[in-house]
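Box S1 | Example of a co-folding query
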Amino acid sequence: MAEIGKDISKAKILLEQGELVAIPTETVYGLAGNALNVSAIAKIFEAKNRPHFDPLIVHVPDFNSVNSFASEIPEKAKKLAQEFWPGPLTLLLKRKEIIPDLVTSGLGTVGIRCPNHKLTLNLLKELTFPLAAPSANPFGYISPTKASHVNDQLSDKVKYVLDGGDCEVGIESTIVGFDGGQTIIYRLGGLSVEKIEAVIGKVEIQLNSSSNPKAPGQLKSHYAPTKNLLVGNLDLLVKAHHGKKIGILSFQKIIPDFPITNQKQLSPTGDLLMAAQNLFAYLRILDQLDIEFIIAEEVPNVGLGRAINDRLQRASVRIE
Ligand code: TXA
Ligand code: MG
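Box S1 (continued) | Returned holo structure for magnesium ion
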């Protein structure tokens, strides 16, 4: 077990020594290392068993720091950062040489984000380097939204877990890039498309996956539990699999005549913010039950609902 605590000085010393520390953010917990130290970055890839073609997001304490790592900041990127940082928004910007190739997987851009979590912001302010941090889960598995989730899976790979409580947003950051005059969303996330468009106007959304995706968050099978996940109409699915041991993830409702211990409601009141907060933790709980597979339904496809449905779809592709 890695040590869990709230000691920023301890986290700082370990990071300065090139070690890995799990950090809380408003989206999910990150597995952090010094973004300018190649051996720390190599440890991150190794700990997560992450392919080297999948670049890391660099976390900074404020917008001013971006100048040190990005060579160009489009006007729309500035506007978005002013409006939504600290917050669940990652900007893909032309990188400066100081960012190691390993961080960006050799790409010409670097993903930068200022996370909205007090402990981590204080830590970032005390450090003289930014933190590269992917979600603190083994590659392809569900992202952690509690300190204990990190310890469940990466306890021997990380020296210290900085405990910032439950993640308030619960779903990863929205990734936005700039191509010529065009703004493109590459990953739906904790900042809704509607909020982004309210500030900079219409954006393009490119979530298509391929074997060599631009952002592996675009990989189809991702964010997945170990049990198979079927997404569809719950009543029909329950009927079709009558008599089997299954777990149910619904948006609001309880399925009658079915063991309540095997059911989770993302938000009984129909609140998408709450649904996003609960999504990954509930998938983990269901994944650990003595069941054959999990069935789930989509949530309304607006606001954060789009990101929730995206994660459900990506977690479910192994089912025919
Ligand atoms: O909310 C978040 O973004 C969390 C917290 C810890 O900040 N981090 C996170 O990191 O979700 P990760 O590594 O699990 O997902 C980052 C995604 C990956 O799919 C990666 O491919 C993409 O960001 N990415 C990073 N840098 C990129 C770049 N330069 N170009 C394209 N995609 C990039
Ligand atoms: Mg991830």
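The chain has a mean pLDDT of 94. The first helix runs from residue 8 to 16.
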